[in-house]
Amino acid sequence: EDHSEEEDDHWNDIENGPDPSRWVRGGLTDVASDDVDDGGGGSCWGLADDAIMDICYNEHPAISEFESKLTNLFPNFVVSRLPEAVLGGCISPLTA
Hints:
The chain is α+β, with helices and mostly antiparallel strands.
């Protein structure tokens, strides 16, 4: 599900904090594991799958600015987003 500008206009992160509809328990794990159901013991709150896809594959000025800052900070490295096929499904393209 793609968040359009119209949908995003109803929630103001500055006034209301992070949009709770985009966060899920178990959305982040501290240790990569092939175990699909770890019982929540090592899981933390993280972005829902649709929110991760939105961040990774749609244009967001804040992320572009951050990537630009990384590029300037580390001029000898190439800052890029890597597809899931490179590192596997447990690591998002943005994290990579």
